[in-house]
């Protein structure tokens, strides 16, 4: 029982990251919470299959991602939203300029193909290594790097970003976008 405690603590520590990733994937806090709960339950019931010495967070991300893809395939057969009409209705209009910029970025992010979006989010938003992202996505590092590169280029196009444009008064946003565009 004592050997399980550190693993369960690792699972608890991964929850905020799982939740952020789930929200980014599905765009709905309620659906994201359901995904996280499902991933944690599967993780707990399959804890004996976890390989010690590997990343608990990456393992749980893989479970969550697989559940998301299964649900997406099922939902695709049930309800289609080709014009994004449903997605636009669930969005909350921001009250501040930075929230507008963030909403624009999320909208552009949602237009990326799923494989590019998840690779970009795993490495840039979650801070995972290319190796962990490749493991989660079931591919090799070169493919992850390629997906991230294509995702960054497409985001720049969707957001009409020009490296010479002024990104606004927020220097932190400027620095973050510059780092992503130059990588």
Query: Structural class, from secondary structure content?
Result: mainly alpha
Q: What's the tally of helices?
A: 9
Cα gyration radius (Å): 18 Å
Which of globular, elongated, flat, extended, rod-shaped describes the shape? globular
Order of helices and strands: HHHHHHHHH
Low-confidence stretches: none
Strand count, sense and closure of the main sheet? none
The proportion of residues forming helix, as a percent range, comes to: over 70%
Quick recap of the structure?
With 183 residues, the chain is mainly alpha-helical.
Provide keyphrases for this structure:
single chain, 183 residues, globular
Structure in words:
There is one protein chain. The chain is mainly alpha-helical and 183 residues long. The chain has 9 helices and no strands. Helix 2 packs across helix 3, helix 3 packs across helix 7 and helix 6 packs across helix 8. The longest helix has 23 residues. The protein is globular and about 45 Å long.
